[in-house]
Amino acid sequence: MSQSPSGREPHLAEIEGEGAERITALKWARYLSGTFGSSGALNALRLYAELGWISEDVRQTMTDYVRGLSGGAASTAPGSVDDELPKELESLSGTPFHQHAKSLEFITVIGNESLSHVLASTTMGEDPLSDSDSDSDPDGPSDLTGPGESV
Question: Residue ranges under compositional bias (Acidic residues) (predicted)?
Fold first, then answer.
């Protein structure tokens, strides 16, 4: 399995040839294109690779899908993909992270992973265990939920 630019194993290392995974990946490409536009979708994919959410191989595959959609015939209108977040991510609804949380949902579906498991091991670009000398919160890094909410 290849490592992401973050140095960790990505949550989604490859998009296998299975039909359901490819169909979901195409839906994700449509979502990214419809939400961010073509260049924004490519930037989002680069971010996801840097965060360790996806591998470089997946980024390249998804880049090809997004570029294939940019011809116009296969593009979708915003809102044509179900934009509702699952229960584990609903606290992000209406925030600037909503669209990226939806991408994380696509990543877990394609990778056949539990969203709760991925959330427990996902950081936003920082490795909370890498700095053992810091005066950080002894309960660990803060998560993406609000006060009193759980993931």
Answer: 128-140
Identity of the amino acid at 15: I
Name the domain count of the chain.
1
pLDDT tens, 114-130? Answer: 888 778 776 544 443 34
Among 111, 114, 92, which residue's Cα sits nearest to residue 24?
111
Q: Looking at residue 92, what DSSP letter applies?
A: G
- Is residue 134 in a domain? no
Q: State the Cα–Cα distance between residues 97 and 47, nearest whole angstrom.
A: 13
Q: Which domain holds residue 30?
A: 19-79+88-120
CA 17 and chain centroid, separation: 20
Task: Give the contacts of 55 (CB within 8 A, at least 6 positions apart).
Answer: 1, 2, 3, 4, 10, 12, 13, 14, 49
* Both tokens assigned to 46: 């680069």
Q: How far apart are CA 83 and CA 93, in angstroms?
A: 10
pTM for the full model?
0.69
